[in-house]
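NR LBD domain-containing protein, pasting as requested.
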Amino acid sequence: MFDEFVSAMKEQKKDKKPETKSKLKQITDGKMTSFANHSFKVSQGNSYRFPSNQFGYSLSTFSPFFLQNCCDVIRRFLRLEAYCDAVDDLSGPLPKSMSGSAELDLFQALFFPRSIAPRTPMKPAAATQMAEQTLSAMWFRLVAHYFEWLAGISELQYLGDEDKLRLAVCQLCKVVCFSVVYANYNRALDGDEELLHFGSGFYWDPARGNDPLMDDYCQEMKRIINHIIEPVKKVGMSKEEFVLVKLIVLFDCTNLMGLSPAGLEFTRSMCNKYRVTLMEYVGMKMEEMADSKGWSEGEVKNRTMERMRNLLDLPIGVEKLGKLDDDSLAAMVESNYGGMRGTLQQQIHTESRKVRHH
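Structure tokens follow.
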């Protein structure tokens, strides 16, 4: 389970015997070889390969404290998002029922996300109504998307192993929920405000709901999402801003228990770095509009700050949404609703709770 991963890491650090260290090195070397040899389909749309290795292993060599040009940062993460969304994949939606193997665990999710769900397009569309029978399929796809996305975040390789694990697991619901918020925001722009879209064809239509537990879960999620979407609508959040705010949501560990002092300081630095990057981008876009709008320098500054306030308010609502999602799914795991009592689900939603809430 989740706590066993952390305990194993601690034991490895304590055991200084040469024979033990040699054995551990052999195991580690063997695992790293399998990770390095792991291959998968490369997105044809952008010709970028995002290794499905843990925490962006072997990616960017830039210092995590180096503030890069905002356009370069955005370009990189837009490509990552496009890859994870499978924008060029024509394999279609997931089957309506897909429980996955009960033996899938956190190790596979971290290193081989595609082993837990096919990489199908995430474009929101109303194909499969949410019900007990479809819950697992939706959950596996969104979790696989999250772990593939993590593989492109190179800063995570600078965290200690225990902190990486805590961050990856404990921030999952927040990050996934923020992606769901953005998907529903885009659907609302197209006039579709009645349905709740989860991605990859999974949706909830209150008019078709006939499962009290699922309906209660989706209705409460929809209520909070609608509340969060209001400031998104107010500023008309762009995809470029979305990818940066998503990184801020990941590294905002203010309410996360269990990180080491060094890990907490590092995540704060990364969170601030992406806030500065967002500020640079917003300021640049405002300056581009200034000439045509006739704005003064002071007005550009005021509009930039107002937009930043609206964008940085989003993680507050997402925190609440993520907690609701995690609490609801934990209850479903414990009751095995929708066949959710698998190893991976328990590690993410029940075992890790002792880290988050103590």
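Note for the archive: Residues 2-9+21-356 form a domain with the Retinoid X Receptor fold (CATH 1.10.565.10).
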